[in-house]
Amino acid sequence: MWYLDRHRGNNLESLVCAVLPSVLLTVVSLLGTVHGCPGVCTCRGNTSDCSALGLLSLGPILPLLPRDTRTLRLPQNNLSSLGTGELSDLSSLDLLDLSQNHLWNLQPGVFSGICGLRSLNLSRNRLGSSRLPAFEPGGVQRANGSQVSNGTAAQQSLSKDLFRGLILLQSLDLSENGLLWLPKGLLDSLQGLVWLSLAGNKLRALDRVTFEPLLALQQLQLAGNPWVCDCKLRDFKHWMEWLIYRDGQVDAVQCSFPRDLRGRDIRSVPAEMFNYCLQIQQVKEGGGGGDPTSSGYNNNNARALPGPPPCPQGRMTTSGEDCVRQRYKPASVRRAAGTQIVAGVVCGTVCVMMVVAATYGCIYASLMARYQREIKSRGQRLVNDAGGAETEPEEGETDVEDGVVSSLISPDESPTMQASGMDHSYRISSF
To answer: How far is the C-alpha of 13 from the C-alpha of 367, rounded, in Å?
Structure first.
C-alpha cells in the first residue's frame, strides 16, 4: 500500500513538472496581452522582438501581437513552415526578420497579406532544400543542381509565387539558403527592389530573364557561390555590366570552374572569351555533334570538351574545318562610356565650328551693310553737288565717275539745247 501511494506521488510530481512550464508560459502571455504584447516577447513602440524563443510555429504569439506592429523580429527560432495567410493580420508590417530558422516550406502567397512590407530577411534558412533526395541511383544531375531520375526532377521548396503581392519590397535577403537555382518569375513582382543578397548559396548560373524586371535594383550581392563561367553565365554577365553602367553595385563574382578561370572575377573576363559559345550554338543549329547541354564544359568534372584547334582572333569555325571571319561579336556595355566620350568630343567640336562660322557670317554681313550705306551716302552727296554747279567742260574732256563716262556736249548742239530751254548736267549712276 505504501508502495502504491509513493508511485502515485511520483507520477503526480512528473505531471506537474511537465505541465507547469506550459502553464507559466500561458499565464505570462495572458499577462502580456494587457499591454498588447506577448509576455515572452519584447515590445517597444511598434517593434516586437520575439527572437531566440525556440518557437516551432507562430500560432501561440500571432493572436497576441499588436495589430499596428510595424517591425517583427523572429530570428533564431525553430520555425520550419509558414502557411498562406498566416501573417495577414499584421498588414502594417514594414520589416520582417525570419533569419536563422529552419524554414523550408513556404506556401505560395504567404506574404500576400502584408503587401506594405519593405524589408524581408530570410537568410540562413533551408529554402534550397529539395523535396526529393539529392542523389538517387541512376539519377543524372543537371547544371542547375536539380536531378532527373526516371523522368522526375527534384524541386526546391522556393516557389516562383512566393513573393507575390510584395510590390513595395525594397530589401530582400536570401543568403545562405543552399539555393541551387532561382525559379523564373520569382522576382517579377519586386519591381521596386533596391537591395538583394544571394550570397553564400550553391548557385552555379543565373538567368538574365529572372533579373530584368528589377529596374530599381542598386545593389546585388553574389559572393560565396560556386560560379561556372561558361556560356550559361554569358548573358547574365552582360546584364551585370548593364547594372554597373546604371551606377549599380555588384560584389565579386569569382569563377570556380573552369580551371583556367578559377579565382577570376567574371566581370574582368573579356566578352571575347565567350566567342566559342557562338560556335556551339551554330553546331546545335546545324545538327553537328556534341552534347547540346554541355555548353562547352562538362558540369561533372568541369573539364573542357575536346574540339578543333582554336582559330585566330576575329575568326571562327563553322561546321567545316575552315576558319571564317566572325560575323557577330558579343556587345559589351563596358565600352559605352568611351563611346560616349568620343561622340561628345566630336559633337562638341562640330558645334564650336558651327558657332564660329555663324559668328563670322554675322560680322561679315554687318560690315558689308555698313559699307553699302557709306557708298550710298557718298553717291547722294555727289548727285547734290552736280545739280547745284553748272560748269561747262572743255572740248574733248571726259569725266569718269565710278565706271560711268560722261561725254561733253558738242558746240554745235549747245545753242540748240540752250534755245529749247533744256539744261543738261553730268550723269551720275545711282548706287
So the answer is: 118
Distance CA 182, CA 213 (A): 14
The answer to whether 111 and 162 are in contact (CB under 8 A) is: yes
Residue 93 and residue 117 in contact, taking contact as beta carbons nearer than 8 Å: yes
Closest CA to 143 of 49, 239, 72, 207: 207
The span from the CA of 199 to the CA of 266, in Å, is: 16
Cα–Cα distance between 69 and 52 in angstroms, integer? 19
Could you tell me what percentage of the chain is helix, strand and coil, using 3-state DSSP and rounding each to the nearest 5? 30, 15, 55
Count CA atoms closer than 13 A to 179's CA, side-chain side.
28
How is the chain split into domains, by residue range?
Answer: 33-130+155-333, 334-368
Dihedral pair phi/psi, residue 297, rounded to 5° = -140, 145
- What CATH class has 33-130+155-333? alpha beta
Q: Is the pTM of this model over 0.85?
A: no
What whole-number distance in Å separates Cα of residue 226 and Cα of residue 258? 11
DSSP bridge pairs for 43 = 48
The grid coordinates of residue 198 equal 544571394
- The span from the CA of 179 to the CA of 381, in Å, is 99
Q: How far apart are CA 68 and CA 145, in angstroms?
A: 42
Which of 26-35, 93-102, 315-324, 351-360 has the lowest average pLDDT?
Answer: 26-35
Burial per residue of 340-367, b for 16 or more beta-carbon CB atoms within 10 angstroms, e otherwise? eeeeeeeeeeeeeeeeeeeeeeeeeeee
C-alpha grid cell, residue 349: 567640336
Judge residue 133's burial from the number of C-beta atoms within 10 Å of its C-beta, 0-12 exposed, 13-18 middle, 19 or more buried: exposed
> What is the distance in angstroms between the CA of the first residue and the CA of the last residue of the chain?
150
pLDDT digits (tens, 9 = 90+) for 64-107: 999 899 999 999 999 999 988 888 889 999 999 999 999 998 98
Distance CA 316, CA 195 (A): 40
How confident is the model over 388-402, as pLDDT tens digits? 555 455 444 444 444
Residue 199 in contact with residue 175, Cβ under 8 Å? yes
Locate 423 and state its grid cell.
539744261
What residues pair up with 121 in beta bridges, in sequence order? Answer: 97, 173
Instruction: Give the model's pLDDT for residue 378.
Output: 81
